[in-house]
Amino acid sequence: MNPTVNADPAELAKFSDLAHRWWDPESEFRPLHQINPLRLEWIDGLVGLAGKRVLDVGCGGGILSDSMARKGADVTGIDLSVKALRVAQLHALEAGTPQVAYREVSAEALAAEQPGSFDVVTCMEMLEHVPDPASVVRACATLVKPGGWVFFSTINRNPKSFLFAIVGAEYVLQMLPKGTHEYAKMIRPSELAGYCRMAELEVTQTRGMEYNPFTRRYWLSQDTSVNYLFAARKP
Questions:
Q1: Mean pLDDT over residues 11-39, rounded?
Q2: What's the number of domains the chain is made of?
Q3: CA distance 68 to 55
Q4: Strand 118-124 vs strand 217-221: parallel, antiparallel, or unpaired?
C-alpha cells in the first residue's frame, strides 16, 4: 500500500475478512443495522436527502449509502476495502438500489479530484480506524460545497467508553469482534470539534447514541459520553 494513504492495513484486513457478512443483520454488523435507521432519519431531518448529491466516506458494505439512496439522494460510497466495496456493489445490484455508486479511493484523493462537489458528506464509524483522523475531516470539508453539511460519528475516549464500547460490546455482550476498537484511537468530542474548526467547519448539532443491552434498543440522546454524532456545516 502507498505509505502516504491515510489507512491502517491491519484495519482494512480486519473488515475485509468480515466483508461477506455485512448484510447479515444477525452478524457482527448487527449494531450497524440497528443504528442505521436512527442515523438516517437524523441526517434526512436536517438536510432533506431527496435530490442531494451525497458522499459516504468509509462506506464499508454500503448500509448507510444504500439507505440514503433509497431516500432519493444521488450517493457515492468510497472505501479502501475492495472486498467490502464488492459486497456493497453486489447488494445494490440485487436490491435494485437506484442512484448509488461505489469507488475504491481515499477521502484525501477524492478531495483533490472533486473539491466542493457534494451537498452532504457522511463519515460514520470510520475516524477511529484511521491513523490521521484530522486529515479525513479536512478532506470531508474540502469535498462539501459551501453551505453543505458534513456528518461524523465516532466513539469518545474515556473510562466509560472503554467499559461500554470495548469491554462490554466486544468481550461481555460479544456484539462486535474482539479488537474492533482500540482505546487509543478513540476521539473525544473536544478533539473532533478542534479538527472541524481547523477545517473551517461549523459544528451545529451534536447527538449521543445510547444502548440498552436488555431491550437491545438504541436511541439518540444528549449523552455523548460513549457513541456520538456531529452535524457540521461549511460556511
A1: 80
A2: 1
A3: 10
A4: unpaired
Structural domain span for residue 80: 9-233
d(CA 91, CA 19): 12
**In residues, how long is the chain?**
235
What CATH number should be reported for the domain holding residue 113?
A: 3.40.50.150
Conformation bin of residue 24: beta by default, left when phi > 0, alpha when psi is -120 to 50: beta
Predicted local confidence at residue 18, as pLDDT = 63
Flag the least confident range among 6-20, 86-100, 121-135, 189-203: 6-20
pLDDT band at 3 (very low <50, low <70, confident <90, very high): very low
> Residue 68: inside a domain, yes or no?
yes
Q: Within a domain: residue 4?
A: no
Q: What value does the mean pLDDT of the chain take?
A: 90
* Cβ-based neighbour number of residue 199 at 10 Å: 20
The reply to whether 1 falls in a domain is: no
Side-chain-side CA neighbours of 172 within 13 Å: the count stands at 10
- Residue 17 domain flag: yes
